[in-house]
Amino acid sequence: MIMERNMLCWCGSGKKYKKCHMTMDERLLALASEGHITPPREIIKTAEQIEGIRKSAKLNTAVLDHVAKHICEGMSTAQIDKLVYEYTTSHGGIPAPLGYEGFPKSVCTSLNNEVCHGIPDEDIILKDGDIINVDVSTILDGYFSDASRMFTVGKTSARAERLIRVTKECVELGLTEAKPWNHLGDIAYAINSHAQANGYSVVEDIGGHGIGLEFHEEPFVSYVTPKGSEMVLVPGMIFTIEPMINEGSPDFFIDEENGWTVYTEDDGLSAQIEYMVLITEDGAEILSK
Fold first, then answer.
1. Residue 2: its pLDDT value, please?
2. Mean pLDDT, the chain, as a whole number?
3. For labelling, which of 82, 84, 93, 107 has a CA lying 20 to 30 Å from the CA of 118?
């Protein structure tokens, strides 16, 4: 739809287009003419949508906090799944992974050499020295949210602690590049550079994603692309920053039996921390982490 200056803005703000998104749209058109990848309007969230997504994200963070209070040595990953399901549903939400493309559980629990998409199981018991990623995704009133944390079990090795620390540093450095008129590649470059400087690798073919109105939306968020590449960032975009950092090779394989769990090819440790962020007028707001 072609917008005229005095029409009500497409975002639903109730403001005239010239007072709302016209300047941003003109800048995006100019960037597109120069060959930059620009976001389609449908992934730029309105104020009403952002408010709903914030509420979902608040519950998502609360679920992770609930897990943090209870996770311990000797519990099964199925018990983590139960914690997530019961807390989410008792607060009016729905665990987004449950049934998603056939995924059988309410949360992903990925241990040690598992890169992502670990399936909770009664027979998988947390033991001293384990590291585990708990990836929680929530639907509340139709709005989606997503974040993950790393947890250590008992006394972990210095090797594992360092991997987790550097992974968090990677996410924080990526966050500093998440601001209007930067590119997704700026986030990727900050993350990949720091990982490599510390002797680690970044998984290339699995990345972050847009989120809010659906579980997975545009854009795909890579963490290995060059600075200045990929989609331009503008206020109203919501996506995840969730690099998967391997201590060895970035290569992986998927469990043939369950079709979901991703393992490091060389059996090395892997860590992942996920923030869900909103691009604002002057930076990024962390919605869930």
1. 80
2. 97
3. 93
Residue 145 token pair: 């949210």
pLDDT of residue 8: 95
Question: Taking 80 as the threshold, does the pLDDT of residue 198 lie above it?
Answer: yes
Question: What is the pLDDT at residue 3?
Answer: 86
Note whether 249 and 238 are within 8 A (CB).
Answer: no
| Bridge partners for 37 per DSSP | 231
Residue closest to 276 by CA, chosen among 145, 94, 118: 145
Token pair of 212 as six digits = 């809010």
Q: How many CA atoms lie within 13 A of 48 on its CB side?
A: 7
Least Cα distance to 85 among 76, 96, 74 occurs for: 96
Q: What burial letters (b/e) apply to 95-118, b meaning 16+ CB within 10 Å?
A: bbbbeeeebebbbbbbbbbbbbbb
170: pLDDT strictly greater than 80: yes
Q: Is the pLDDT of residue 57 over 90?
A: yes
